[in-house]
Amino acid sequence: AMIHILNGPNLNLLGQRQPEIYGHETLDDVARACAQLGQELGLQTECLQTNHEGALVEMIQQARHAAQGIIINPAAYTHTSVAILDALSAFEGPVIEVHISNIHKRESFRHHSYVSARADAVIAGCGTQGYLLALRHIAHVLG
Ligand code: DQA
């Protein structure tokens, strides 16, 4: 099965951006680790990133035809985007929401997620390891 790993705004700066919050690993490191774990689990992975809300909506729509599961870190759009929630609601497979930081431990504007209304599972505060945990969970669910 193919799993799309979708990343929202500023995650292209992962590793350089507020490393005290998001760590030193880059998104390329995450993509490589996911590909490697995916191979062990019998899953193919594609890791994509965009800084644009509409582009993220289109990536989610494309996943309807190309992927059996979605792992998504919508970044700041988590807290603002009904459009991303609606796009995910049109996807039929498992959706796992990942946040590198624990959004509940941070500013109150990060406590609410529009995406959680659709996500089958939410992982927050595990660092970039959260993506790997999400992949293991999808493997278990698609089993
Ligand atoms: C984030 C948390 C969001 O609040 C923030 O806007 C991000 C990253 C995380 O992975 O911890 O950009 O989704």
From TrEMBL:
PROSITE patterns: DEHYDROQUINASE_II. Homododecamer. It comes from Roseinatronobacter monicus. Substrate binds at residues 73, 79, 86, 100-101, 110. Catalyzes a trans-dehydration via an enolate intermediate. Belongs to the type-II 3-dehydroquinase family. Gene3D superfamilies: Dehydroquinase, class II (3.40.50.9100). This is 3-dehydroquinate dehydratase.
